[in-house]
Amino acid sequence: MKTLFSIILFVSTLGISLFQNQTIDKKASHVSFKISNLGLNTVKGTFQNMTGTFNFNPNNLENSNFDICIEATTINTGNNKRDEHLKSADFFNVEKYLEICFKSTSVIKHDNHYLTKGNLTILGVTKMVEIPFEFANNIFTGTFELERLDYGIGEDTGTFMVGSTAKITITSVVN
């Protein structure tokens, strides 16, 4: 009887720990992007300081969810002048919109990976997006394409100076 009670207690404790939010490692997590520039170059950059709720359990996808934000002010392309322009009202308007946020509405298994659907908010504009992702060794890696003009990012630059589609990769390391 004592052994049975110990097993039930262990399984209950294990179940509780599996459904708790994982903690995001802010230093190791980031969002990177690639976008064409003048049709000849590719500009690469990152955003840092990811925060929010990360709750993923492959054995309980119905209760898995993400509510994550990244600081827009951390944009870094390796070019200070370009970064300051990207922070301006011409692009990310970081004085008014401090964060870029994603909140999931569903998480499902899709082929050999997962798919989360949810609301992405940039510059106060919210659109539904789908992010295919993999989760291994406590690292979430999701990649999708973003139409920047859908969010009003750099509307006055046209699509020759800055491409219309950015490739986004989210890397979230959790404990």
From TrEMBL:
A Pfam family that the UniProt record links to this protein: YceI
Domain of life: Bacteria
All residue ranges annotated as the Lipid/polyisoprenoid-binding YceI-like domain in the record: 21-175
InterPro entries: Lipid/polyisoprenoid-bd_YceI, TTHA0802/YceI-like_sf
Membrane-spanning ranges: none
Gene3D superfamilies documented for this protein: Lipid/polyisoprenoid-binding, YceI-like
Record PANTHER family: PROTEIN YCEI
Protein name per the record: Polyisoprenoid-binding protein
Organism (species): Bizionia arctica
